[in-house]
Amino acid sequence: MTASLLRTTLALLFLGLFGVLETTISCRNEEGDAVDWFTFYKLPKRQDKESRKTGLEYLYLDSTTRSWRRSKQLMNATKSVLGRTLEQLYEAYASKNNNTAYLVYNDGVPKSVNYSRKYGHTKGLLLWDRVQGFWLIHSIPQFPPVPEEGYDYPPTGRRNGQTGICVTFKYNQYDAIGSQLLICNPNIYSCSIPATFRQELVHMPQLCTRASSSETPVRHLATLQSAQGQYFLHFAKSDSFLDDIFAAWMAQRLKTHLLTETWQRRRQELPSNCSLPYHVYNVKAIKISGQSYFSSYQDHAKWCVSQKGTKNHWTCIGDLNRSPHQAFRSGGFICTQNQHIYQAFQRLVLYYEDCN
């Protein structure tokens, strides 16, 4: 083979490989580039008339950065981090590709005023092929629209703060993810599981058809690994686990005191809990650089972070609030010891409620 022909062959191989990488399903940043994971914090809409805040501004952090940054995009823009990531769903739907699968779930279905208590208090989206895909977990009611309608952000997600995390996973993680979701019992309102996946991912068709299983455990903890090797723990509880997931399970299993930020609706919150070896404290106010603070009553987010001074630095993002009613709902949290995520969330805590 001549040197010229060899260079041409290598160039074609490189372009072919580059094309495959570019089209691989993954979490995406605002430039449309693939990232291993990202997390966002959609800020609440300010109530004062002088404020120009729209309820669509958000903070953003991904696997290529070290701390929060304010997005230049608004959350309802197709160039936002969610718009860029979900664009892959719309492309897969339009192409009718039998090699791509997806599940979209929310206990508050888009364009519906009813919130189903029959299903888990869960909100999210999975999209994957036989190489890899992503799992987006978020707290936004009535989001996203069904794939045929394209990207939009609902008015119901503007007033309060919202959080979410997207993780890119290789195909071999989706069997475990399906098992976790089966426990969480999500309200799936749009899905497509082509035949090519049904033999290996047996739980995904069950989820798509909303079929129940008598063999589903009361709770389960799974270890997941992102496409680039970041480890995550996922806690999944069914509605048969009748207790506060934070105090009764997560804090004790992670061996750390937890500061929890969940929607603290008046007269529907659980108090901070110091009755077990590892304590759970309610965050009462969040501080944002350039914005004074906002209270948990304005925040629909669901996350927790290890208390400062504890040995194990964990951050968890997920589905459930610290509320007596939520003890009867299924749902879960995905947790990481990534130090950039930990520091980003830890710095948001303005103050929290001690135990009485």
TrEMBL record:
Pfam families, alphabetized: DNase_II
Domain of life: Eukaryota
One MF term in the entry's GO annotations: deoxyribonuclease II activity
Catalytically driven reaction(s): Endonucleolytic cleavage to nucleoside 3'-phosphates and 3'-phosphooligonucleotide end-products
Protein's cellular compartments: Lysosome
Keywords: Endonuclease, Glycoprotein, Hydrolase, Lysosome, Nuclease, Signal
One BP annotation, GO: apoptotic DNA fragmentation
Enzyme Commission code: 3.1.22.1
Main location (coarse class): other
Gene Ontology CC: lysosome
Signal sequence interval, chain numbering: 1-23
CDD domains found in the cross-reference section: PLDc_DNaseII_beta_2
UniProt record similarity statement: Belongs to the DNase II family.
Function noted in UniProt: Hydrolyzes DNA under acidic conditions. Does not require divalent cations for activity. Participates in the degradation of nuclear DNA during lens cell differentiation.
Protein name stated in the entry: Deoxyribonuclease-2-beta
